[in-house]
Write a structure and sequence with these properties.
The chain has 351 residues and is of the alpha+beta class. Helix content is 45%, strand content 15%. It is globular.
């Protein structure tokens, strides 16, 4: 969820997706909202005001890690108790996310990125948000459990998803599904390309999630989305349909990632205040097609229900009680493989 009623004042926030297929993550939403409410209520004190005549609260101590990845300087700030988390694990976690995003986009979308890590109880990655400052630097704020292990860092999808937002313009509230849908769709593909998750897991999550993104009775188009699942997974359905259609029209030579790279390469990133029509026009032009704009016109204000079962069958992927089953003789089996693995030049140096 991204909140930017006024770009000049709030500079947009893009909160990590709440993956309904991973129910253990759902508590982060409520914890995060409660935390934000609590922080808002004490803002005067945190900004230096005195409490009943007492001294102002001191700022927590901060330690820093500097990381250079793909022409982006990353400044990681470990705030307060987060300084006790193993810095080598933090560095590896950030590098994993950066590698994954670069495997999809070829870069991170901004020249400078500030990641602010705050510790919480537990052993997992929790609430996160993405924004930018007046210099166009990306800012990611993320809460990490103080007892987190390397295994849990390796399982994390949150930081990769937040970094995905850096390479695409933030949208106004009505069109937020577009930015959230792209991040939701691309994040697991990016992590497959860097071997952080399996291809089976990626398709399992997409099949589960897409079923929740369909319009329900009384729903309008994606611009009128009323639920998080419609925002995230309805937007992901748009991306899947665009990816498949681009590959069908181009004999499998280009796909959604190529169009998104075109947007980013032409200056569209989180700090760009681009309207949807301009953004999608640039993406379409970069691949010589009109798929993004035409599909947007179709789905933005109309409750389009997709025949997902037929689409999975054409792609040659099926979710069974025994797991994910592939059919390499399916009409769009080659498209399925290209969606996941892209072209050889999309892989990155992971050193």
């Amino acid at each position: 969820m991204a909140l930017r009623p006024n770009a000049k004042h709030l500079r947009g926030r893009s909160v990590s997706k709440f993956d309904w297929a991973r129910q253990t993550r759902n508590s982060h939403l409520f914890a995060g909202i409660a935390l934000l409410i609590a922080l808002a209520s004490v803002t005067p004190f945190l900004s230096g005001a005195k409490i009943f005549g007492g001294p102002a609260m001191a700022s927590p101590a901060v330690s820093r890690l500097e990381i250079d990845r793909f022409d982006t300087k990353i400044d990681v700030q470990l705030i307060g108790e987060a300084r006790k988390i193993n810095s080598k694990l933090i560095r590896e976690w950030v590098n994993d996310a950066a590698n994954s995003v670069s495997a999809y986009y070829g870069h991170l979308g901004v020249k400078r990125l500030h990641i602010e890590v705050t510790a919480t109880g537990g052993d997992d990655v929790g609430f996160a948000s993405t924004s930018y400052n007046d210099d166009g630097d990306g800012i990611i704020e993320v809460y990490v459990g103080s007892r987190i292990t390397r295994k849990q860092f390796k399982k994390d999808w949150t930081l990769t998803l937040e970094m995905m937002h850096l390479s695409f313009p933030l949208m106004d509230h009505e069109h937020r599904w577009l930015a959230e849908g792209i991040a939701t769709y691309a994040e697991p593909i990016a992590r497959v390309r860097t071997h952080l998750i399996s291809e089976d897991q990626m398709w399992r999550e997409l099949i589960h999630g897409a079923s929740r993104g369909q319009p329900q009775e009384g729903d309008g188009g994606l611009n009128q989305s009323r639920t998080f699942t419609r925002w995230y997974w309805g937007g992901a359905i748009y991306c899947l349909l665009a990816d498949v259609e681009m590959r069908k029209q181009s004999q499998n030579s280009v796909g959604l990632s190529d169009a998104l790279k075109g947007i980013s390469d032409h200056g569209g990133n989180i700090a760009s205040e681009w309207a949807p029509d301009e953004t999608l026009r640039v993406g379409d032009s970069s691949v010589g097609l009109h798929v993004l704009s035409e599909l947007f016109d179709k789905m933005a204000d109309n409750p389009v229900r997709t025949d997902l079962d037929s689409l999975w069958s054409e792609l040659g992927v099926q979710l069974t009680t025994d797991g994910v089953v592939y059919n390499d003789r399916a009409p769009l089996a080659r498209v399925r493989k290209k969606i996941v693995w892209g072209s050889s030049n999309e892989m990155v140096n992971l050193q």
